[in-house]
Amino acid sequence: MFACARLIAPAARSALISNSKVYLWPLSTALSQNPSLVQSPVVQQHKQATLLPAVRSFQTTPVSRDIDSADKFIGAGAATVGVAGSEMWVGYIGLAITQSTSLVGLIQYGTKTWSELDSQMTSVERVVEYAELEPEKDDGTTVPSDLWPNNGRILFDDVTMKYPLSNTTVLKSVTFNINPGEKIGIVGRTGAGKSSLISVLFRLFHFDGTVLIDGADTKTLPLSILRSKIAIIPQDPVLFLGSLRQNLDPFEQFSDSQLWSSLEEVELKEMVTNWAQGLETTILEGGANVSVGQRQLLCLVRAILRNSKIIVLDEATANVDLKTDEVIQKVVRRKFRNCTVLTIAHRLNTIMDSDKILVMDAGTVAEFGPPAQLLKNENGLFYGFVQTSGKK
Fold it and tell me: What is the pTM assigned to this prediction?
Protein backbone atom coordinates (compact mmCIF):
# COMPACT_ATOMS: atom_id res chain seq x y z
CA MET A 1 0.00 0.00 0.00
CA PHE A 2 2.69 2.46 0.98
CA ALA A 3 4.81 1.51 -2.02
CA CYS A 4 1.83 2.21 -4.26
CA ALA A 5 1.27 5.56 -2.57
CA ARG A 6 4.90 6.49 -3.21
CA LEU A 7 4.48 5.65 -6.88
CA ILE A 8 1.35 7.76 -7.22
CA ALA A 9 2.54 10.70 -5.08
CA PRO A 10 4.55 12.45 -7.86
CA ALA A 11 1.58 12.28 -10.17
CA ALA A 12 -0.67 13.63 -7.44
CA ARG A 13 1.50 16.75 -7.26
CA SER A 14 1.30 17.38 -11.01
CA ALA A 15 -0.40 20.38 -12.56
CA LEU A 16 -3.30 18.20 -13.69
CA ILE A 17 -4.12 17.07 -10.15
CA SER A 18 -3.39 20.42 -8.55
CA ASN A 19 -5.88 22.06 -10.92
CA SER A 20 -8.35 19.19 -10.91
CA LYS A 21 -11.27 21.56 -10.39
CA VAL A 22 -10.39 23.30 -13.63
CA TYR A 23 -10.09 20.08 -15.67
CA LEU A 24 -12.12 17.34 -14.02
CA TRP A 25 -15.36 19.06 -13.03
CA PRO A 26 -16.02 20.45 -16.55
CA LEU A 27 -15.00 17.04 -17.87
CA SER A 28 -17.54 15.23 -15.71
CA THR A 29 -20.25 17.63 -16.84
CA ALA A 30 -19.32 17.17 -20.49
CA LEU A 31 -19.29 13.40 -20.17
CA SER A 32 -22.64 13.23 -18.43
CA GLN A 33 -24.26 15.39 -21.14
CA ASN A 34 -22.95 13.25 -24.03
CA PRO A 35 -25.72 10.69 -24.80
CA SER A 36 -23.54 8.51 -27.03
CA LEU A 37 -20.91 8.18 -24.31
CA VAL A 38 -23.32 7.60 -21.44
CA GLN A 39 -25.20 4.89 -23.35
CA SER A 40 -21.98 3.14 -24.43
CA PRO A 41 -21.77 -0.49 -23.18
CA VAL A 42 -18.21 0.13 -22.01
CA VAL A 43 -19.24 3.11 -19.88
CA GLN A 44 -22.27 1.24 -18.55
CA GLN A 45 -19.99 -1.61 -17.49
CA HIS A 46 -17.54 0.64 -15.61
CA LYS A 47 -19.93 3.38 -14.61
CA GLN A 48 -20.20 2.47 -10.95
CA ALA A 49 -16.56 1.57 -10.42
CA THR A 50 -14.45 3.89 -12.47
CA LEU A 51 -15.64 6.75 -14.65
CA LEU A 52 -18.18 9.31 -13.47
CA PRO A 53 -18.03 8.40 -9.75
CA ALA A 54 -14.25 8.53 -9.96
CA VAL A 55 -14.23 11.97 -11.55
CA ARG A 56 -16.76 13.44 -9.11
CA SER A 57 -15.19 11.93 -5.97
CA PHE A 58 -11.56 12.56 -6.90
CA GLN A 59 -11.42 15.88 -5.05
CA THR A 60 -12.39 14.31 -1.71
CA THR A 61 -10.28 11.11 -1.79
CA PRO A 62 -6.52 11.35 -1.00
CA VAL A 63 -4.65 9.21 -3.50
CA SER A 64 -1.85 8.59 -1.02
CA ARG A 65 -4.05 6.94 1.59
CA ASP A 66 -6.19 4.41 -0.22
CA ILE A 67 -5.42 2.08 -3.09
CA ASP A 68 -8.93 2.68 -4.43
CA SER A 69 -7.87 6.27 -5.06
CA ALA A 70 -5.40 4.94 -7.62
CA ASP A 71 -8.34 3.38 -9.47
CA LYS A 72 -10.19 6.71 -9.49
CA PHE A 73 -7.11 8.65 -10.47
CA ILE A 74 -6.25 6.36 -13.38
CA GLY A 75 -9.87 6.26 -14.53
CA ALA A 76 -10.08 10.03 -14.50
CA GLY A 77 -6.75 10.28 -16.30
CA ALA A 78 -7.90 7.85 -18.97
CA ALA A 79 -11.09 9.81 -19.49
CA THR A 80 -9.08 13.04 -19.78
CA VAL A 81 -6.90 11.49 -22.47
CA GLY A 82 -10.00 10.41 -24.35
CA VAL A 83 -11.51 13.89 -24.56
CA ALA A 84 -8.30 15.91 -24.75
CA GLY A 85 -8.47 16.18 -28.56
CA SER A 86 -10.89 18.15 -30.61
CA GLU A 87 -12.84 14.97 -31.40
CA MET A 88 -14.01 12.41 -28.87
CA TRP A 89 -14.39 8.73 -29.70
CA VAL A 90 -16.05 6.42 -27.20
CA GLY A 91 -13.85 3.46 -28.19
CA TYR A 92 -10.70 5.24 -27.02
CA ILE A 93 -12.26 6.02 -23.65
CA GLY A 94 -13.47 2.46 -23.20
CA LEU A 95 -10.07 1.08 -24.03
CA ALA A 96 -8.41 3.49 -21.62
CA ILE A 97 -10.83 2.58 -18.80
CA THR A 98 -10.40 -1.16 -19.36
CA GLN A 99 -6.61 -0.91 -19.32
CA SER A 100 -6.74 1.37 -16.27
CA THR A 101 -8.67 -1.23 -14.30
CA SER A 102 -6.12 -3.92 -15.18
CA LEU A 103 -3.29 -1.59 -14.19
CA VAL A 104 -4.82 -1.01 -10.76
CA GLY A 105 -4.95 -4.76 -10.20
CA LEU A 106 -1.30 -5.05 -11.16
CA ILE A 107 -0.42 -2.27 -8.71
CA GLN A 108 -2.25 -4.07 -5.90
CA TYR A 109 -0.57 -7.38 -6.76
CA GLY A 110 2.82 -5.71 -6.99
CA THR A 111 2.35 -4.01 -3.62
CA LYS A 112 1.33 -7.30 -1.96
CA THR A 113 4.24 -9.19 -3.54
CA TRP A 114 6.74 -6.53 -2.49
CA SER A 115 5.43 -6.62 1.09
CA GLU A 116 5.78 -10.41 1.26
CA LEU A 117 9.28 -10.26 -0.23
CA ASP A 118 10.32 -7.62 2.28
CA SER A 119 9.02 -9.78 5.15
CA GLN A 120 10.73 -12.97 3.94
CA MET A 121 14.04 -11.23 3.24
CA THR A 122 14.32 -10.46 6.96
CA SER A 123 15.37 -14.09 7.51
CA VAL A 124 18.01 -13.81 4.79
CA GLU A 125 19.25 -10.58 6.34
CA ARG A 126 19.69 -12.29 9.72
CA VAL A 127 21.56 -15.24 8.19
CA VAL A 128 23.93 -12.87 6.39
CA GLU A 129 24.46 -10.86 9.59
CA TYR A 130 25.34 -13.96 11.63
CA ALA A 131 27.53 -15.34 8.83
CA GLU A 132 29.58 -12.14 8.79
CA LEU A 133 29.79 -11.90 12.59
CA GLU A 134 33.39 -11.86 13.73
CA PRO A 135 34.19 -14.89 15.92
CA GLU A 136 34.99 -14.23 19.55
CA LYS A 137 38.72 -14.02 20.16
CA ASP A 138 39.98 -16.99 22.16
CA ASP A 139 43.71 -17.19 22.78
CA GLY A 140 43.58 -19.49 25.79
CA THR A 141 45.74 -22.57 25.43
CA THR A 142 46.17 -23.94 28.95
CA VAL A 143 43.89 -26.93 29.55
CA PRO A 144 43.34 -27.57 33.30
CA SER A 145 42.59 -30.95 34.82
CA ASP A 146 39.11 -32.43 34.62
CA LEU A 147 38.63 -31.79 38.35
CA TRP A 148 39.31 -28.05 38.02
CA PRO A 149 38.05 -26.06 39.85
CA ASN A 150 37.96 -28.39 42.86
CA ASN A 151 37.82 -25.68 45.55
CA GLY A 152 36.20 -22.55 44.12
CA ARG A 153 38.65 -19.87 45.26
CA ILE A 154 38.36 -16.63 43.25
CA LEU A 155 40.89 -13.78 43.23
CA PHE A 156 40.40 -10.44 41.45
CA ASP A 157 43.69 -8.54 41.26
CA ASP A 158 43.68 -4.93 40.01
CA VAL A 159 40.95 -5.58 37.42
CA THR A 160 39.99 -2.68 35.15
CA MET A 161 37.48 -2.92 32.31
CA LYS A 162 35.86 -0.80 29.62
CA TYR A 163 33.04 -1.91 27.36
CA PRO A 164 33.79 -1.91 23.61
CA LEU A 165 33.15 1.41 21.82
CA SER A 166 32.99 3.18 25.18
CA ASN A 167 35.50 5.40 26.93
CA THR A 168 33.86 4.91 30.32
CA THR A 169 35.75 2.70 32.76
CA VAL A 170 33.15 0.48 34.42
CA LEU A 171 35.59 -1.33 36.74
CA LYS A 172 38.49 0.53 38.32
CA SER A 173 41.34 -1.43 39.94
CA VAL A 174 38.99 -3.95 41.56
CA THR A 175 40.75 -6.25 44.03
CA PHE A 176 39.20 -8.83 46.38
CA ASN A 177 39.59 -12.46 47.41
CA ILE A 178 36.83 -15.06 47.82
CA ASN A 179 37.62 -18.19 49.80
CA PRO A 180 36.39 -21.65 48.76
CA GLY A 181 32.74 -22.30 49.58
CA GLU A 182 31.93 -18.71 50.61
CA LYS A 183 28.55 -17.19 49.85
CA ILE A 184 29.05 -13.64 48.58
CA GLY A 185 26.28 -11.08 48.16
CA ILE A 186 27.04 -8.30 45.67
CA VAL A 187 25.11 -5.03 46.05
CA GLY A 188 25.28 -1.53 44.66
CA ARG A 189 23.28 1.08 42.84
CA THR A 190 22.47 0.86 39.15
CA GLY A 191 25.67 1.20 37.12
CA ALA A 192 27.93 0.43 40.10
CA GLY A 193 29.61 -2.47 38.27
CA LYS A 194 27.86 -5.54 39.70
CA SER A 195 27.10 -7.25 36.37
CA SER A 196 30.47 -6.15 35.02
CA LEU A 197 32.15 -8.36 37.62
CA ILE A 198 30.28 -11.35 36.18
CA SER A 199 31.28 -10.32 32.66
CA VAL A 200 34.93 -10.39 33.74
CA LEU A 201 34.50 -13.76 35.41
CA PHE A 202 33.17 -15.26 32.16
CA ARG A 203 35.62 -13.25 30.00
CA LEU A 204 32.82 -11.71 27.97
CA PHE A 205 34.93 -8.58 27.39
CA HIS A 206 38.60 -7.71 27.42
CA PHE A 207 39.93 -6.49 30.78
CA ASP A 208 43.21 -5.50 32.36
CA GLY A 209 44.42 -7.20 35.51
CA THR A 210 44.23 -10.79 36.67
CA VAL A 211 41.44 -13.15 37.67
CA LEU A 212 42.50 -16.45 39.26
CA ILE A 213 40.20 -19.40 39.88
CA ASP A 214 41.91 -22.01 42.05
CA GLY A 215 45.22 -20.55 40.95
CA ALA A 216 44.52 -20.71 37.21
CA ASP A 217 44.60 -17.44 35.25
CA THR A 218 41.31 -17.24 33.34
CA LYS A 219 43.02 -15.43 30.44
CA THR A 220 45.09 -18.52 29.71
CA LEU A 221 42.11 -20.92 29.64
CA PRO A 222 40.04 -21.75 26.54
CA LEU A 223 36.68 -20.01 26.72
CA SER A 224 34.72 -23.22 26.26
CA ILE A 225 36.37 -24.79 29.32
CA LEU A 226 36.17 -21.67 31.49
CA ARG A 227 32.49 -21.04 30.86
CA SER A 228 31.49 -24.69 31.15
CA LYS A 229 32.92 -24.80 34.69
CA ILE A 230 30.83 -21.89 36.00
CA ALA A 231 27.05 -22.21 36.37
CA ILE A 232 24.90 -19.10 36.08
CA ILE A 233 21.23 -18.51 36.81
CA PRO A 234 20.42 -15.26 34.96
CA GLN A 235 17.83 -12.64 35.74
CA ASP A 236 15.99 -13.42 32.48
CA PRO A 237 15.73 -17.23 32.24
CA VAL A 238 16.31 -18.65 28.76
CA LEU A 239 14.49 -21.67 27.34
CA PHE A 240 14.64 -22.90 23.76
CA LEU A 241 12.17 -24.47 21.38
CA GLY A 242 12.35 -28.22 21.96
CA SER A 243 11.56 -30.86 24.56
CA LEU A 244 12.02 -30.32 28.29
CA ARG A 245 14.79 -32.93 28.24
CA GLN A 246 16.69 -30.99 25.55
CA ASN A 247 16.40 -27.79 27.57
CA LEU A 248 17.71 -29.40 30.76
CA ASP A 249 20.34 -31.64 29.17
CA PRO A 250 21.16 -30.41 25.65
CA PHE A 251 24.32 -32.56 25.37
CA GLU A 252 22.69 -35.74 26.72
CA GLN A 253 25.14 -36.10 29.60
CA PHE A 254 22.70 -37.16 32.34
CA SER A 255 20.31 -40.04 32.94
CA ASP A 256 16.55 -39.79 33.45
CA SER A 257 16.93 -40.51 37.15
CA GLN A 258 19.29 -37.52 37.52
CA LEU A 259 16.85 -35.27 35.67
CA TRP A 260 13.90 -36.36 37.84
CA SER A 261 15.97 -36.00 41.01
CA SER A 262 16.96 -32.43 40.09
CA LEU A 263 13.34 -31.55 39.25
CA GLU A 264 12.33 -32.84 42.66
CA GLU A 265 14.95 -30.61 44.30
CA VAL A 266 13.20 -27.50 42.93
CA GLU A 267 9.68 -28.86 43.55
CA LEU A 268 8.81 -29.27 39.86
CA LYS A 269 8.65 -33.06 39.69
CA GLU A 270 4.91 -33.21 40.37
CA MET A 271 4.19 -30.61 37.69
CA VAL A 272 6.24 -32.44 35.04
CA THR A 273 4.75 -35.80 36.05
CA ASN A 274 1.27 -34.43 35.37
CA TRP A 275 2.27 -33.45 31.84
CA ALA A 276 1.17 -36.12 29.35
CA GLN A 277 4.61 -36.43 27.74
CA GLY A 278 6.72 -35.83 30.84
CA LEU A 279 10.31 -34.99 29.94
CA GLU A 280 9.41 -35.05 26.24
CA THR A 281 6.90 -32.20 26.64
CA THR A 282 7.52 -29.50 24.04
CA ILE A 283 8.72 -26.17 25.39
CA LEU A 284 7.77 -23.26 23.16
CA GLU A 285 10.25 -20.61 22.04
CA GLY A 286 11.36 -18.58 25.06
CA GLY A 287 9.39 -20.89 27.39
CA ALA A 288 6.09 -19.27 26.44
CA ASN A 289 4.05 -22.18 27.83
CA VAL A 290 5.52 -22.00 31.36
CA SER A 291 5.54 -19.17 33.88
CA VAL A 292 8.50 -16.91 34.63
CA GLY A 293 9.01 -18.55 38.00
CA GLN A 294 8.98 -22.04 36.48
CA ARG A 295 11.50 -20.96 33.83
CA GLN A 296 13.78 -19.69 36.58
CA LEU A 297 13.51 -22.97 38.46
CA LEU A 298 14.30 -24.93 35.28
CA CYS A 299 17.47 -22.84 34.91
CA LEU A 300 18.27 -23.78 38.51
CA VAL A 301 17.89 -27.45 37.53
CA ARG A 302 20.60 -26.96 34.89
CA ALA A 303 22.96 -25.60 37.54
CA ILE A 304 22.21 -28.56 39.83
CA LEU A 305 22.91 -31.06 37.06
CA ARG A 306 26.27 -29.50 36.15
CA ASN A 307 27.45 -29.70 39.77
CA SER A 308 29.76 -26.71 39.33
CA LYS A 309 31.95 -25.45 42.14
CA ILE A 310 31.16 -21.82 41.29
CA ILE A 311 27.54 -20.65 41.03
CA VAL A 312 26.47 -17.17 39.89
CA LEU A 313 22.98 -15.85 40.60
CA ASP A 314 22.60 -12.68 38.53
CA GLU A 315 19.56 -11.16 40.26
CA ALA A 316 17.85 -14.51 39.72
CA THR A 317 14.95 -13.65 42.02
CA ALA A 318 14.25 -10.16 40.67
CA ASN A 319 11.26 -11.18 38.51
CA VAL A 320 9.77 -14.04 40.52
CA ASP A 321 7.18 -14.20 43.27
CA LEU A 322 8.10 -14.60 46.94
CA LYS A 323 7.29 -18.33 46.98
CA THR A 324 9.63 -19.06 44.04
CA ASP A 325 12.26 -16.82 45.64
CA GLU A 326 11.99 -18.90 48.82
CA VAL A 327 12.41 -22.15 46.85
CA ILE A 328 15.50 -20.82 45.07
CA GLN A 329 17.11 -19.63 48.30
CA LYS A 330 16.36 -22.95 50.02
CA VAL A 331 17.90 -24.96 47.16
CA VAL A 332 20.98 -22.70 47.07
CA ARG A 333 21.57 -23.15 50.80
CA ARG A 334 21.09 -26.92 50.71
CA LYS A 335 22.38 -28.03 47.32
CA PHE A 336 25.24 -25.55 46.94
CA ARG A 337 26.44 -25.45 50.54
CA ASN A 338 29.94 -26.60 49.49
CA CYS A 339 30.10 -24.32 46.44
CA THR A 340 31.23 -20.74 46.01
CA VAL A 341 28.09 -18.70 45.32
CA LEU A 342 28.05 -15.15 43.99
CA THR A 343 24.65 -13.49 44.28
CA ILE A 344 23.86 -10.13 42.70
CA ALA A 345 21.12 -9.00 45.03
CA HIS A 346 17.80 -7.43 44.13
CA ARG A 347 16.24 -7.98 47.53
CA LEU A 348 18.58 -7.42 50.47
CA ASN A 349 16.86 -10.08 52.56
CA THR A 350 18.14 -12.74 50.14
CA ILE A 351 21.80 -11.99 50.96
CA MET A 352 21.66 -11.07 54.65
CA ASP A 353 22.77 -14.60 55.58
CA SER A 354 25.75 -14.48 53.17
CA ASP A 355 29.25 -14.98 54.52
CA LYS A 356 30.37 -11.64 53.08
CA ILE A 357 28.87 -8.63 51.30
CA LEU A 358 30.66 -6.93 48.40
CA VAL A 359 29.47 -3.35 47.99
CA MET A 360 30.23 -1.82 44.59
CA ASP A 361 30.17 1.92 43.96
CA ALA A 362 31.07 3.61 40.64
CA GLY A 363 33.16 0.64 39.51
CA THR A 364 35.17 0.28 42.73
CA VAL A 365 34.97 -1.93 45.82
CA ALA A 366 33.50 0.39 48.46
CA GLU A 367 33.02 -2.22 51.23
CA PHE A 368 33.74 -5.92 51.64
CA GLY A 369 33.13 -7.99 54.73
CA PRO A 370 30.57 -9.90 56.83
CA PRO A 371 27.09 -8.29 56.98
CA ALA A 372 27.22 -7.80 60.76
CA GLN A 373 30.54 -5.97 60.47
CA LEU A 374 29.31 -3.68 57.69
CA LEU A 375 26.14 -2.83 59.61
CA LYS A 376 28.23 -1.44 62.45
CA ASN A 377 29.40 1.39 60.18
CA GLU A 378 26.48 3.81 60.23
CA ASN A 379 28.17 5.95 57.59
CA GLY A 380 28.69 3.02 55.23
CA LEU A 381 26.84 2.36 51.98
CA PHE A 382 25.52 -1.04 53.03
CA TYR A 383 24.08 0.39 56.23
CA GLY A 384 22.33 3.03 54.13
CA PHE A 385 20.93 0.39 51.75
CA VAL A 386 19.51 -1.60 54.66
CA GLN A 387 17.97 1.49 56.24
CA THR A 388 16.38 2.53 52.95
CA SER A 389 15.08 -0.98 52.35
CA GLY A 390 13.61 -1.07 55.86
CA LYS A 391 11.72 2.19 55.29
CA LYS A 392 10.18 0.84 52.08
Answer: 0.65
